[in-house]
Design brief:
single chain; alpha/beta; Rossmann fold; two-stranded antiparallel sheet; 7 helices; globular
Length: 270
């Protein structure tokens, strides 16, 4: 697999209803959250969405939870990561990849994170595979937002947190929002659907769990040593936290939102 990014022009999409902060919290639709392990949480993304007034409808299809036939009862959907592969033959993996057609057809806000982004790319016809030289991304790595990325959401961080060994090519007709080195496609957009290869959802507590339980991964080619995960978090996390909140606000509104210091929310500062 070459992992060469391909650039495409912008794609017209229907505009979503404007997000109104005056709407009472109880009147806002929940966000569908898809998790892949029993102990997984939506982390910082979940905290930020709750702070924006949305409850979370958490489902784990791996353990038998059904996915809705329509998103009429939800404000959007987020599919998170996990240790499995989008290439796995398990029924729940194949069903999740197929289900992504629901938010795409209905033009509802969809966000895939790591595995979720790989599922989105596969649904759209792209390949998902390990790096040709067996390299991984575990820790903080630089990304380079494109012009389309800045148009979708200003204020991108220049380093973000990763934990993956597979990547994906850019599906035909999608916009490349951010690129990297070993894994060139770091963020993509298809209409109101977005995919991030990195992990803006990770809290400090999650980082402690991952680096403890996954300590054997640090010997893999390209992985950052454990100490760098926490040292780099002290440097890069504030900007990533700010960007995430403005991204999610714009994602729900259907329009870009400028990043300002006002978007640094204490609830998302774990």
């Amino acid at each position: 697999m070459s992992f060469q990014p391909v650039r495409f022009g912008t794609r017209a999409v229907g505009k979503l209803p404007a997000w109104d902060p005056a709407v009472p919290t109880g009147a806002r639709l929940p966000i569908l959250v898809v998790l892949h392990q029993e102990a997984s949480t939506p982390g910082r993304v979940g905290n930020a969405l709750r702070a924006l007034g949305h409850s979370l409808d958490i489902r784990r299809p791996r353990f038998g939870d059904p996915l809705p036939r329509t998103l009429d009862g939800h404000a959007g959907a987020v599919v998170f990561g996990g240790p499995m592969s989008a290439n796995d033959p398990d029924d729940y993996i194949r069903n999740e990849i197929g289900w992504i057609g629901v938010p795409l057809r209905e033009r509802r806000p969809f966000l895939g994170i790591c595995l979720g982004a790989q599922m989105l790319a596969m649904h759209l016809g792209a390949r998902v595979a390990p790096h040709p030289q067996g390299r991984v991304q575990i820790g903080y790595y630089p990304i380079r937002p494109t012009a389309a990325g800045y148009a979708a959401c200003p204020g991108w961080p220049d380093h973000v947190y990763h934990w993956h060994r597979e990547g994906f090519e850019l599906p035909a007709g999608c916009e490349l929002l951010a690129e990297g080195d070993d894994f060139p496609v770091q963020a993509l957009r298809s209409g109101s659907a977005f995919g991030f290869q990195f992990h803006p959802d990770v809290t400090t507590a999650m980082m402690h769990r991952w680096t403890t339980r996954g300590h054997d991964r640090f010997d893999q080619p390209g992985a950052r040593p454990c100490r760098d995960h926490f040292a780099d978090r002290a440097i890069y996390d504030v900007i990533e936290r700010t960007w995430l909140t403005s991204f999610l606000t714009g994602w729900l509104r259907g329009e870009p939102v400028d990043t300002t210091p006002d978007f640094i929310m204490p609830i998302a500062a774990e």
